[in-house]
Amino acid sequence: xxxxxxxxxxxxxxxxxxxxxxxxxxxxxxxxxxxxxxxxxxxxxxxxxxxxxxxxxxxxxxxxxxxxxxxxxxxxxxxxxxxxxxxxxxxxxxxxx
Length: 97
Known about the structure:
Layout: H1 2-23, H2 30-36, H3 38-53, H4 58-87
Helix pairs in contact: 2-4, 3-4
């Protein structure tokens, strides 16, 4: 029972810390931060798939599936944002190279 409270406490602390860190990032840095953290989203996706593979009950499978779904969304979203950011640096074609 105590282990569950410790895990919940760690989760809440991580969520609060993550929110505080991200909320302090200037708007101009959000896109580079997103593109630079794609590898972290990939690691989260692999971890969610491993957790889903070890799920035994229906609730564990549901939570694992939601984790995989959200992690995959993060990876795809990160690549979409990175592509849009890189498109901003391409030559426009009007008098350019």
